[in-house]
Amino acid sequence: MGIRIGILGYGNLGRGMECAVKQNPDMELVAVFTRRNPEDVKILTEKAAVCRVEDAAEWKDKIDVMILCGGSATDLPGQTPEYAKLFHVVDSFDTHAKIPQHFANVDAAAKEGGKVAVISVGWDPGLFSLNRMYANAILPDGKDYTFWGKGVSQGHSDAIRRIAGVKNAKQYTIPVDEALESVRKGENPELTTRQKHTRECFVVLEEGADEGKVEEEIKTMPNYFADYDTTVHFISEEELLNEHGGIPHGGFVIRSGRTGWEGENQHVIEYGLKLDSNPEFTASVIVAYARAAYRLASEGQSGCKTVFDIAPAYLSAKSGEELRAELL
Amino acid sequence: MGIRIGILGYGNLGRGMECAVKQNPDMELVAVFTRRNPEDVKILTEKAAVCRVEDAAEWKDKIDVMILCGGSATDLPGQTPEYAKLFHVVDSFDTHAKIPQHFANVDAAAKEGGKVAVISVGWDPGLFSLNRMYANAILPDGKDYTFWGKGVSQGHSDAIRRIAGVKNAKQYTIPVDEALESVRKGENPELTTRQKHTRECFVVLEEGADEGKVEEEIKTMPNYFADYDTTVHFISEEELLNEHGGIPHGGFVIRSGRTGWEGENQHVIEYGLKLDSNPEFTASVIVAYARAAYRLASEGQSGCKTVFDIAPAYLSAKSGEELRAELL
Known about the structure:
The structure is a homodimer.
Chain A: E1 3-8, H1 12-22, E2 27-34, E3 49-52, E4 65-68, H2 76-84, E5 88-90, H3 99-113, E6 116-118, H4 127-138, E7 142-148, E8 151-152, H5 154-161, E9 166-175, H6 177-184, H7 193-196, E10 197-205, H8 211-219, E11 229-234, H9 237-243, E12 249-259, E13 265-275, H10 278-298, E14 303-305, H11 320-326
Helix pairs in contact in A: 1-10, 2-3
């Protein structure tokens, strides 16, 4: 029997998780927990149960790792400590400023339960963090850049949908090519928010809504759009669904730094992702860390970890011998 | 007092190591060990000693981590096990096929001495291996590509210099743009050796040597050049020194893979390096792993490790709290 996985929350990320578990033969999806009526939730895995989230505690001895697929704003701050007392858990908590507090809460709970919890897993935070950290350790005298996109920002799409007269919308975050090229050349530019990314919006209006008014409201929205060069396209609902139905994303982490007795040599380290499906890729990262959580626990560890604290080999289904022979 | 570092071997890599130690305030270079007459070896660090390699054992209690800067063919197979009995050690052993045997030898010696040894550190093997491993764990259904260059291959440059009539030479390995672009698009091409890299040679002839004969001998050299599209330029010694005096290198590790219930979505993970100085960058990686070796040892660990076995946080001089607040 493989590592027994539970999924808590069955939105885009939860569905991606189900697919990721299927790709890993050493894992088995046991149950999906939902706030909806379980009878209304159809999942893809034949042998897995669909249960009410209130019944999760009853699965304490039947699930090894519970993957928490809720949101960072209101779900995970409560859920991750709660379930870390009962299961090994992995979450994708991504409110950067609140990570230290979340870490402390989850660490206390996981230690109380003798469980391993891994927080803030995915690609940013997650793989991008790893690459920032490795690159900083290797090139102490250098400068970091992170670019996001081209990809769909759910937060910005939601913000547009809240405007009166908007029926539906999709927003793409796009890195500015000139900025990216300058960073890649090691020119170490100082970049404003506007110089790093542009925002492109595809908007479906309610009947009778005023294009000019909506466009103005988008472009001047504080925090979300006012500091960016923003383009707005008005399209039909059909075009939105056909042409902008996916959830692609990606981005780049780049560090340039100097070495040599007098800093005479320059180096550029670049990590890039190009993702057709943000939630499915995020889920694939989380599933690898679920394996790590299970293995760390079998060695007697407990408490909260991040991607910084986990040796890479724990993520792989291969043995140390296989990894050294095939991938080193 | 910081981590006390010894450098064994003072060629390009050893000199890069000295520069890298200087960039890390928690480390201190104590001594450089050389096979040459120590009086003939001038180093840059004022307070460090220059000693005969035969006297290294006398430094057992004065050095924490001995960094082995010899070659993989004849130096490291003997040196790493020998010194792992006396010091924590890091090497850059890069003969991929012999890594399992080297690991076993070093592991036995390090355990006997109660020391931590980290082998095969640098960028390939090293950072490229890490990226192959992370990407494989995250996208189990995918395909790996490694491209090297544009950069100087010392082995190929040496091979040209051994040809009769050649006074000096420098060889660049260059990835083929079309192959790289196809991989980045996720087309998963099957690529022959010739389709992945080209080789460009800059050659200085002895007086009276025959250009045509040397060019023919280079282009038909088995293993080194015969399987590649090779360009040969004959230049003056002055031009070689002025225009081709550096040791740049770099390359790309790319994995493309599929996710989704039916593999309907595609993702591309790319890691790239662009290095002005191959030995200085390699040294910068090794110094970070020297810190990790020292820390693992202070937790009571011993034996042989690779980059796969070491949690990223051990590489950084920052605390866990700092890493979570600043880089996660």
